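User: Fold this; tokens only.

Assistant: Input:
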Amino acid sequence: MKKFFSTILFLITFAQLHSQVPFNQNPNWISTDVSSVSTGGAFADINNDGWLDFVVANGNDISIQRVVVYYSNGDGTFPTTPNWQAADIDYHGHLDVGDINGDGWTDVAVSVYIGNGGFTTPGKVKLYLNNNGTLSSNPDWISADLFYTFSCAFGDADGDGDLDLAVAGGEAYYSNPAQPRIYYNIGGMLETLPSWKGTASIYSYDVNWADFDNDGDLDVVFAGESNPNYIFENYGDSISVTPTWQSTDESQYANSFFVGDINGDGFLDLAISDNNQLGGTGKFKIYLNNSGTLNTTPFWTSSFSGYGSGINLADIDNDIDLDLITGGWWQPVRIYLNNNGTFPTIPQYTSTSTSVVEVIVMGDVDNDAVQMVQEVFVSDGTKKLFYLEKTPVQEIQRVVVDEDTLQINEYCFDLECGWVMLALQPNLLDVIIIDAVLSWDLDMGITNWDQNKGNYLFLNTSDPVFVANEENLPEDFILYQNYPNPFNPSTKIKFTIPNVTLSEVEGSLVTLKVYDVLGNEVVTLVDEYKSAGEYEAEFSAKGGSASVGNALTLSSGIYFYQLKAENFVQTKKMILLR
């Protein structure tokens, strides 16, 4: 499927310079329930009020505790103590969030690391359904099999448009391995015994889903503790029960991982945090994806060595690439800024405050730079999986296939990883439109299992402002996505000329042309000198503009528009739908 950049419904720029870490050295919010051993965590809009809430699972292997929610106060702040808590108690590990039953409300799955008897008893995995904004007090579903598990992740294993649950198993401290497993969604509820298990029992403390080979289905990856990291390939009709990829570097003590395309080549890479409590080097490291297959050794490792833990990839400086955010036990938060697909070994940002960082989550909790976008895809007739351009996503508002708006139970999605899976295969050349909300001002949440400290929230200090005058013009030329897109009969194309160009004068000679899919020129919309500022040209479906006139009638399909100014050349795609 060919992917098109989002249609921007309102434009935001930032007064803060790129490549600057937009967080204070100390958190803006600290929870006061310090006795909680906070482990799993996620931002999610539990009550659908448009504000992200903070869901946290407490316990780890230290204390039997509860799953809790810090509901947003509706102004971008959280209460210092949770205003919802589950009735049951367990040694909770990590959690994940997603709409398991297609009712439009976010549910919560939680791994129970060990049983109530401690390390001599295995744990389980459980699910709390969302009842119109409030989670069930007790789990609505509990796995029938007991095993040691620290992490779980929602994904669509069979491509049927609903969320299944992958679960990492094994407890390495007292040698209790377990088979990785997947519980399939049957009619809006998980099966109690998993239909898929990996053949071998392993030790794994993290799991997630990603389409590493770009074949349109979600592979499942497990972080290895005392064994390699593993990927089990999804073949569309089945998932391999033995690993189809494994890491080969000597350090095999992964705590957590995150997946993202760090070098913009269209393939997902794998970032790992190693923890050397039981062995290994304890470094942060990244495995690059080589055209669909991960390299088996990391191309980058940090100078840091120790008890690595939470890890995330997010564009925190708004330069359109993914930065690396890391944490450790009794460590500060460290941020490594992406520089053309690689990272320095020394972080550009280190927080003053320290904690036992377990999970790092990103999202715009104060809604100060949220943006409605529309991304358009054209079906190749074989794939149902679509990745959005920017992650994390705040909200999926609408999915349209061939002009039909899908019901919420006709697709599933993952906001943190930014994918949408359709239940039914679109026809060849069907147009898929995904309306979503994203943010250019990501805040950072931290769960902490140090019982002397609370959970943390670091607010993004970027200063988002509307582009309203020449003072806010960017330092380079910008060609925006046309709007509306798809269009009929006309669409508008905006572009911006910077205050000072490469020739060190204000303004430039500019051409804006439209081409068909064969490269034939359809029309020249602009061909003149333009001073610094923002401009808009209108293109009509009859092959012209208000100033050029309507020379010919165009058929439905893909067209390209190209802006040239000095040495700047950029081309974008648009779709005409009759």
